Amino acid sequence: MFDYVVIGGGIVGVSTAMQLLEARPGCSLALFEKETIIGTHQTGHNSGVIHAGVYYAPGSLKARFCKEGAEATIRLCEENEIALNRCGKLIVATDESEVGALDALAKRCKENQIAIERLDAAEIKLREPQIRAVAGFLVHTTAITNYVAVTGAMRRKIVDAGGEIRLNTNVVNIRENSNHVDLVTSSTDVQARRVIVCAGIMADRMARMCGIDADFRMVPFRGEYFRLPPAKSNIVRHLIYPVPNPSLPFLGVHLTRMINGDVTVGPNAVFGMAREGYPRFSFNFRDTLEALSFPGFWRMAKQHLGFGAKEMWNAIYRRGYLAVCQRYCPELTLDDLEPYPAGIRAQAVMRDGTLVHDFLIRQTARTLHVCNAPSPAATSAIPIGRHIVNLVLSGQPDITKRMVQ
Ligand SMILES: Cc1cc2nc3c(=O)[nH]c(=O)nc-3n(C[C@H](O)[C@H](O)[C@H](O)COP(=O)(O)OP(=O)(O)OC[C@H]3O[C@@H](n4cnc5c(N)ncnc54)[C@H](O)[C@@H]3O)c2cc1C
Description:
Layout: E1 2-7, H1 11-23, E2 29-32, E3 49-50, H2 61-79, E4 84-85, E5 89-93, H3 99-111, E6 117-120, H4 121-127, E7 135-139, E8 143-145, H5 147-160, E9 164-166, E10 171-176, E11 181-185, E12 190-197, H6 203-209, E13 216-223, E14 226-227, E15 239-242, E16 254-257, E17 263-266, E18 270-271, H7 285-292, H8 295-303, H9 305-316, H10 318-326, E19 338-339, E20 343-350, E21 360-363, E22 367-372, H11 381-394, H12 399-404
Parallel strand pairs: 1-2, 1-12, 2-9, 5-15, 12-22
Antiparallel strand pairs: 3-8, 4-8, 5-7, 6-7, 10-11, 11-12, 13-18, 13-20, 14-17, 14-19, 16-17, 21-22
Helix pairs in contact: 1-5, 1-11, 2-11, 9-10
The protein binds flavin-adenine dinucleotide.
């Protein structure tokens, strides 16, 4: 019997397992990941941005975790010699109608104690000659990294501390009893005293196995990117972001410098018909049926009809996608949009159609489920993991202490 089993080898699960072992040295812990490589899903298909915490409501967990997470991630990169580039980010208003929203974001930065540098149109032209905007601000603390490498460094700490990583191990059923949890996996069946589920897009299915009220559903939102040709990889010096729509948990199509030197355009946010199907037009019957049969999906679709239709149109017609980027980077042409792998966001949608912006955690007596860990959860993975560990350890008798003695 394990003291703890963590399900899910994305950055949230790996960070949680690492910090459980730090808090309870000597405990028996195993992490189960169904794929053959950790970080296969969202953790390995994102923009690689270490966010500074510009967008989040002051005082919210999301704001605090992002700021603390950015510092902790940068420290971890430095300690483990993981590639890191503090390139900074420029948020731009492309016309006067966006200046109010830009000002509101600048105010939010002040409340969140994030230093920014305001720029007018001429100053933007000077710093970023290819960018056209009427106003903007620079966030110097935004950086980029490789989150698979970050997760790999955490994984090494787990192994060094005596934890087990079991790859290729799909957890297919969970049964909770009064004094332990039975886990049925694709290899062997095991028992654990506590189970922490960090299963990303599979969070709702795992929660249902534990009898948690399914008042939410994970809806896949594809984030499709294009890569600029190498000749244009110096088109910008910073990451360039538009002013986002505050009612959505997405940041808008941006120009991102990746840690390997590529510059990507994206990601958009379109409904995905397969939770783990990365190629365009991937379709999975169960995934699509589960989304479309959930009343919250239709309520959400109705609330964001205009946005959804526009994103879908632009995903099909590259000219539409291009026009979105040309608003702030007119230099780009259709030929510049080269293929690049998509990512798939695990987005919880409530029964009333609300897109959950914040982290969502549900618990039973012996299981804890991370039911929504949207962006910037890669940046925030260290404080999220710490928070989960505190929840797990505060709600139980100290079983591992007893065992270690
Ligand atoms: C397009 C895109 C861009 C993003 N950009 C950024 C960014 O720039 N900065 C940022 O901070 N965040 C970003 N994010 C968000 C960030 O990537 C995610 O919030 C974060 O990676 C979530 O990590 P996770 O561990 O919860 O999920 P995942 O990485 O998806 O991991 C979940 C794991 O659980 C495993 N699993 C599921 N079910 C089972 C089972 N039954 N048995 C065993 N294993 C199971 C899966 O195989 C998977 O490996 C982005 C996300 C996307 C999609």
